[in-house]
Histidinol-phosphatase
Amino acid sequence: MIGDFHVHTHYCQHGSADNMEAYVLQALAKGLTHLSFTEHAPLPESFSDPAPQKDSTMDRDKVEAYLKEGQALQKQYAQDLQINIGFEVDYIQGYEHATKQFLDMYGAETDDSILSVHMLQAPDKSFFCIDFSEEEFGRAAKAFGGLTLLYKAYYDSLQASVEAELGRFKPKRIGHITLIQKFQLAFPQPADFWPEQRQLLALMKKNGYELDVNTAGLYKPLCKEIYPSAQLIQHAVALGIPLVPGSDSHAAAGIGKGFEKLQAFPLRVPQTQISK
Ligand SMILES: [Zn+2]
Ligand SMILES: [Zn+2]
């Protein structure tokens, strides 16, 4: 197994208490050669976390400590494991400027990051965190005027994320591109979004992005599927989009979880970062 390239830590407010070294040891025990820490970057200061617990990301004042701890492990385990430090950065439409500022500030200290959509703005301007809970997802569907419109808004935002101008440290990988299906067993997909999905992948290919092949959905009781589906992954392969595996672990025990289900796919290590 080449590595796990989507991993969270105790620095985000909804992570487990495991220290970062525990993740490293688990990666070694699983025989991985690479590990990317991609903790949730702090949200823009002008943006209020719409998740009911307001716990979506790490606090801004923890960023330095996170990078320092990661960099120390990077050195300590350099012989055994390539450790990358980076962020899972939220793409929030309308907050591009603040997001670019964050990336400009810390990009030079990072190796590998992911750009993801979790936050969507409803027609009444309120924001929703679409993966927080089944209940919140239901509220979002109402606010958007139905599931179909919510799905459409999600794919619009993903496309915008690929096209957004976020500067030279913009992540080169798009996170879990079917996260909108996290609660699909309670809220069945209202329509076929194959055209939107295909368009998104074409745009990713055109702009040189990698795909986060994310096993977390397999273990969500209302999803039970990889993000994205095998069919979409095959389409990405046909387009020549690099597939980068990630467990989206929030605890050390989750490193590499479900990767046996990815054996059929041509997985790659990420293009580590951007000319430093
Ligand atoms: Zn998380
Ligand atoms: Zn995510």
Q: What stands out?
A: The chain has one domain: 3-262. Residues 8, 12, 14, 40, 250 surround zinc ion (ligand 1) (CB under 6 Å). The chain is about 30% helix and 15% strand. Residues 42 and 137 are 22 Å apart (CA to CA).
